[in-house]
Amino acid sequence: MFPFDAIAVGLAVAVLISIVWTSFRVGISPMPSSQKAQKAIISAIPENTHGLIIDLGSGWGSIVFPLARSFPLATIRGIELSLIPWAFSRVRALLSRHSNLDIQRGNFQTTSLDGAEVIVCYLFPEGMESLRAKFEEELKPNTLIVSNTFRLAGWEPEEVITLDDIHQTPIYRYRVPAK
Ligand SMILES: C[S@@+](CC[C@H](N)C(=O)[O-])C[C@H]1O[C@@H](n2cnc3c(N)ncnc32)[C@H](O)[C@@H]1O
C-alpha cells in the first residue's frame, strides 16, 4: 500500500470512529431527515416566519439548508455536537453563502433557546423527554415545535402530518403551552 493510500484509509477510519463514538454518546446517529420529511417540516412552518428557527441536532445540514432557502427573512440556526457532520455542514454553509444561516458546534442541552420562534428536531424518545422541561423554561408560550418522528410525551400536538412513506412517519407540530 502506498503511503497516500494508508493516510486515506487512516483518515476514513478516524472519521468513522468519530461519527460512531459521538452517535453512541448522544444517543442518535446523524441520519438526515428524508426529502418527504423536509417538505412536511417546511409546510408545517408559517410562510411569513421571520424570526429565529433552530434545528436541534442539525447533523449534515439536511434540514437547515432547505429552511434557509424557504424562509429568507428568518435566521436559521443549526446546533450540532458531532464534529464531522458539523464540519461538513459548516463548509457547505460557507460555500452556499446563505446569509441567514448559522451552524454552531455545541450541545443543545446547554445552549440557550431564548428568542426562538420555531424549533425543529429529529431526535429520539429520551432526547425529546429531556427537552420538555427546557422548552417549558426557555421558550415563549406559543413557540412552534416541529418534531420529525418522535412525540413530546405529555404534550398534545396541534397537528400530526403522516408522511406517505413505508413507515408512515409522523411529523408532530406543537405549541409551547401558556405558563
Ligand atoms: C437524526 S439526526 C437529525 C439531523 C437533522 N436535524 C435532520 O433532520 O436531517 C440527529 C442529530 O442530533 C445530534 N445531536 C443529538 N444530541 C445532541 C445534542 N445534545 N447536542 C447537539 N447535537 C445533538 C446528533 O449528533 C445528530 O446529528
What does this structure look like?
Helix content is 38%, strand content 21%. With 179 residues, the chain is α/β, with parallel strands linked by helices. It has one domain (28-175): Rossmann fold. Strands 3-2-1-4-5-7-6 form a seven-stranded mixed β-sheet, covered by helices on one side. The radius of gyration is 17 Å and the shape is globular. The chain starts with a helix and ends with a strand. The relative contact order is 0.15. Bound molecules: S-adenosylmethionine. S-adenosylmethionine is lined by residues 22, 26, 28, 30-33, 55, 57-59, 62-63, 79-82, 85, 107-109, 122-123, 127, 148. Residues 22, 26, 28, 30-33, 55, 57-59, 62-63, 79-82, 85, 107-109, 122-123, 127, 148 line the site of S-adenosylmethionine.
Overview features:
179 residues, alpha/beta, Rossmann fold, 7-stranded mixed beta sheet, 7 strands, 38% helix, binds S-adenosylmethionine
The CATH architecture name reads 3-Layer(aba) Sandwich
Strand order of the largest sheet: 3-2-1-4-5-7-6
Let me know the largest β-sheet: 7 strands, mixed
- Provide the helix percentage: 25-40%
SS-based class: alpha/beta
Spell out the helices and strands N to C. HHEHEHEEHEEE
If you consult CATH, what is the topology? Answer: Rossmann fold
Any idea what the radius of gyration is? Answer: 17 Å
